[in-house]
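stage 2 :: seqdesign
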């Protein structure tokens, strides 16, 4: 037997599906995992001074709208 909460969730999901949406599951790295920060630093060091990385960062800096940022 469904609970009122389950029914509301199902109704919401049915509405999204009727609007042409579908659920998607996305797996992302676990930032809480031991060694995550160390691996990020390792990969960042590999990109330091890489010509393509520098070009991409320069483009992002030029394209970014930082109006109002502090």
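stage 2 :: out
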């Amino acid at each position: 037997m469904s609970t009122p909460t389950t029914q509301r969730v199902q109704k919401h999901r049915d509405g999204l599906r009727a609007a042409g949406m579908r659920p998607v599951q996305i797996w992302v790295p676990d930032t809480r995992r031991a060694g995550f920060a160390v691996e990020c630093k390792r990969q960042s060091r590999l990109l330091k001074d890489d010509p393509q990385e520098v070009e991409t960062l320069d483009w992002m800096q030029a394209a970014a709208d930082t109006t109002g940022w502090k």
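stage 3 :: structure notes
- The first helix runs from residue 4 to 18.
- The chain has a mean pLDDT of 94.
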